[in-house]
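Our preliminary data section would be incomplete without showing what the modeling component actually yields. Below, a chain of 334 amino acids is followed by its predicted structure, encoded as tokens that our downstream tools consume directly.
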Amino acid sequence: MGQAFARMKFGVLAMMAAVLTVASPQMAIAQDAAEADFAAAAQVTEAAAEAAPEAGGYTPMAPTPGKGMPVHFDDDPVQSMTFQDQYTADGAYALAMHDWLLMPVITAISLFVLGLLFYVGIRFNRRANPVPSKTTHNTLIEVIWTIVPVIILVVIAVPSITLLARQYETPPADAITIKAVGYQWYWGYEYPDHDVEIISNMLDEEESQASGEPFQLAVDNRMVVPVGVPLRIQTTAADVIHAFAVPSLWFKQDAVPGRLNERMLVIDEPGVYYGQCSELCGALHGFMPIAVEAVPMEQFEAWVATQGGSMPSAEEVADADAAEESESEAEPAA
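Predicted structure:
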């Protein structure tokens, strides 16, 4: 029995040795290929950096304190407890709706209910009213507390539905397409119209301080976009559900594996706008920030050149417009 066990053990060891002998060259080849790919990517990055002055001298924009980023309580207690300033038309509309419609209505209702509770507690307690009333119905009060809430809901519904429709407006055919892909745990940005793809990772605290940016919001490669033009933002994910969210741009869209969500974005002012993944996606969920850098078109073209990409030609834009027109004409017929 012992000899049989020894022979079986020797056979297993021999089989493992044979497998390792066969696999070792393949592993070495794969490692050499990975190192070659990394070296090639490094050479491309260095070449792009050297070409920056010739491509228009693109320089990353410095962030403006308090713009496009959270405000600390010590700096501004009131601002730190409300929405960030908005830099899109939809964001300005939504913020005005919050400040001038929802907050007054909520405050008025809360104060009215609080006053009513105090009145009932004082007016109808056992000491002030030893003989309780047996009234069970009051037609006028019942009509009022039915009609008034309906009116309030209608007043709130009109701007709410308007905002919802604005947020899902279809981008035009000539909109610049940017595909944001969520990974565990970083973001990738693809520019299919410009043949550009970048990976964005969070900077550590020392690098953030050196660049003058907020820690846990600063990244090594920002999502650079032109200001004042329609952007077609598409989101998806490679592993689990993420969410692409930039509060100061009033933008939040889920990134779901196997699904492509799309929404239009138009940024009003140049600047650096920060956000984060807003869907619990794993252990490092809090370490995949978003930095959107909105620049004039000339600087965007220079940035595309530094990344080794190219701007679409006028013929390509015209073909896209024609395709959109043909699709819109075919929809009623279908």
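DSSP finds seven helices and ten strands in the chain. The longest helix spans residues 2-50. Preliminary results of this kind motivate Aim 1 of the renewal.
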